[in-house]
């Protein structure tokens, strides 16, 4: 009962532990994982590594848990020695006995995404280097650049900036190096740039990069993901996969040259004979359905499996017997584990609730994965793939949440735009009493080709943060959301201001007509990215909300086109401003053209208009953030400002003091 529990307040929410992906040991009996947390009082982040005994459930912390110490990228050198990254350098540490870490590799520039293959005594990693430079030479280039008398950056191609980074001549490359484990002091040999043999790496004006990679279990082959450079990089979604040998400097082989969509998530079978990946096939469409392709190394033939599937998988992992693939896919507001026969494409759902991630097979009948739900933060679980029984192995927030109430999601369906069935859910407020009336908070997801899921998010859009502040919280997966068939996802094209808006308004009408405890005079709507666009759109189309929050949402589709880094997105979804047909679609979906009803949004363009026209509005700006709020301290302030704003305009007394 909530009368003996506390709400999830801002400080508690930000101090929760966050668990990392499990890393299974060579014997498949143990797993490493990171636990990270934020201390709001000291404003410091900490991360440490623990070892889980998969079969008896024992958990042992391995690295120091000192405030402000941060380690990442846990890996196994052998069954008794682990490795990890700390401040860009690689360390090793015995699993038993003396647990003092020692440095293995202190590269001249920071490395990330480190893997180790014992059969080849080989390390692989990613590092950003200048064209035709070794890691040591890159240090000298940086030193020379630091002596420049100007800071100009000159660009001849359109990809000058991507999200929060201006493009430089440094590009992420993938390297391999031999690890000599002789004696107590190990050494790392000269690194080999596996991507250096690509023909375009020597061109400093090409802003390509290695985005991801994987190594075969034997360590003899590597597959990596590269966006090929061209003059159309900002309006093309072509991303390729190359296969390369790690043993010698042979030229990488292009596997996806016949397709011009985005390729991703390569993964080798455990016997190293096949490589699977995900492939979009429609050029220019970043939210196309992912198809599964399998390449056989011996025959160099590629086949598609499960091509008739109408849901889009995310990431892939082979079963230990190499007969099937595991994936996570969005399905009706959940992220479920699905097993796919690698020969026939037959599919079987292995989980049914919440959201799964980070699949790690243990043996032919069991796997580890990370699972969360609306009322449950992420923890490591074990799944029996035959019986589908699930066992929770960690409970990283048991102590903190012992006295905290978290509400569950309650599903509902209604008829939305185009006569289609649309899905949403309600999260009831802290201390819910049916005889009391409550304000409503409508949370609107980004995309638009994204979906809200019944998971525990540590971002600004966790429904329980609004429920804990006293709001009936409503989430709706409007047209464009994946997980309801690809046609439903595709339908939002050219309809940004139409189908999603109709869905949201009908969804709100549906819940308010059936849940009499909702006060229809005290409603707010909040969203980020496309959800922020929709807040701006709502601002010009209805007066049913007391206040709106627009986080990084487009106020003008016209100026937004010219300010974006990824032109493929507005060109596919809406159109080109100089093309008459495209201009008409952009104008039809332009929030700036409909600002007749004035309320209270929060984004720069809309804020300027509001304040100039005398409407109460507030701008919250974080100069050290980008499209997201990444720093924990900034997230604390974001929640404080937003919850204070919506409680003020709905005349709501939160169950705890927000400021």
Q: What class do helices, strands and sheet pairing give?
A: alpha+beta
Low-confidence stretches: 596-602
**Alpha carbon gyration radius:** 26 Å
Biggest sheet features = 6 strands, mixed
DSSP strand count? 38
The order of strands across the largest sheet is 33-34-36-35-37-38
Spatial shape: globular
**Mean pLDDT over all positions:** 92
Work out the strand percent: 25-35%
Oligomer: single chain
Cα(first) to Cα(last) distance is: 26 Å
Determine the number of helices (DSSP H or I, runs of at least 4 residues).
Answer: 12
Please give the share of residues in helix: 10-25%
Describe this structure in words.
The protein has 659 residues and is an alpha+beta fold. It has a six-stranded mixed sheet, with helices on both faces. Strands 1, 2, 3, 4 and 5 form a five-stranded antiparallel sheet that branches. Strand 26 and strand 27 form a beta hairpin. The radius of gyration is 26 Å and the shape is globular.
